[in-house]
Every structure is written in C-alpha cells, then in structure tokens.
Amino acid sequence: MKIIWLGHGSFRIETAGQTLLIDPWLTGNPVLPEDQHEAAVAGGTHILLTHCHFDHVADLVPLSKKLGVPAVGQYDIMSHFGEKDGIETVGFNKGGTVDLNGVKVSMVPASHSTTFQTPEDLRTGGTEVGFMIRSEGHTVYVSGDTDIMADMDWMGDYFKPDIGILSAGGHFTMDMAGAAYAAKRYFSFKTVIPCHYRTFPLLEQSAQDLIDGLPGVDVIEPQVMQAIEV
Prior knowledge:
Blueprint: E1 2-5, E2 11-15, E3 18-22, H1 37-41, E4 46-48, H2 54-57, H3 60-67, E5 71-74, H4 75-85, E6 89-92, E7 97-100, E8 103-109, E9 115-117, E10 122-124, E11 129-135, E12 138-142, H5 151-159, E13 163-167, H6 176-186, E14 191-195, H7 208-213, E15 218-219, E16 227-229
Parallel strand pairs: 3-4, 4-5, 5-6, 12-13, 13-14, 14-15
Antiparallel strand pairs: 1-2, 1-16, 2-3, 7-8, 8-11, 9-10, 11-12
C-alpha cells in the first residue's frame, strides 16, 4: 500500500490494484505545484469525498468526468452531484460499507461542517464524514476534517485501525496536541500521518506536538507527492 499526500487534506492511496483519491484538491492548492497535478490523479479509480468545503470538493466533478471514475461519499451529496452534473456516484451513509473492487470502505462520523457555494447561496451538503479503509491487511482511518469526539471510542474499538490519517492543523479541526490526545485515548495506531496543516499560515506548521504526544507510534510528517509505503 502506498499513501501519497497531495497537500492539505488530499491523499492518493494505491492499494490492491485500486487508486483512491481522497478529497483531491488541485485548483488553488498552494502546496501542490501545478506541474504535479496530472501525476497526482493519474490512474485514479475512485474519488472519495469527506465533505463539501471548497478545499475538498472543488475538483470532484471535473476529475470524475476527466478520469471517468465514480465519486464515492455520503448519499445526499452524491445524489446532488449525480443529478446536477451527471457524474457516476456511489452514495452510502454512516454505518455503511462499500466494496470498491476489493477495497472495503466504511463510512464513520466526523464533527465539522459541510457547505458549498451555489450561484444562489451557500448550501449545506449532506453531513461530514470519515472513512475506514480496509485493504492488504491494513485498516486506515481517514478522519476527514474533525474535532475530537466521543464516537472515536467505538470506532477505535470496532475497526481497530493500525494507520491514522488525522486532520491536525487547528483552527478548523483538532490541532496536533488534540490529535495526539485522540490517538492515545481512542486508538492503537502503529502509524499516524497528520494532514490539513502547513497549507496556510493560519494552520499549524509542524507536527512536533503530535510526535511528542505519541511515543512509540511512527508519526510520519508527509511530503507532497512522496509515497509512504506501509
């Protein structure tokens, strides 16, 4: 399995012959060079969406059309984009699991918000979520944008993820200290990869508090377009 950070909250996960693009943000992403955009999404087989904020959803429709692949996410959001933009979608909901050609993806709660701009006004797009991705003997928890929440207790106990991709930049999500607290209290990760940081000055620029808070856990500060192999 290869986990590749595309900057901010965006990832490319290559596993079991599939390439999952998680919240792929290309347009306006200040940490993903434009000359890397094609390579970032090449060969994508599915686009997974955690919520509808612009820095997660901006490229969903054009990428789905360009790559000819389905968007996968919360039912209400997928219904909207499927009907309005004519893209192929896989809509499901919290508690549900879909099988993406051998890669099992379960939808779990997150605690954030989810809105998107239309020509008329700002609208709420379904609900924000995270994912548990099971493949090649690993369970990867993709937190999506979230704060610490009590649901992490049962999520950690039930799914037992060994890899955590955690939003940890602060201001809009939990910060590094909060992510360390959540990981220590609710999960037994072997590997933790922080995200949703370093993008803007407003966000945390270092994962040191996360590293310091999780002794014995392999905390990997990702580098844009550099594969982490697990």
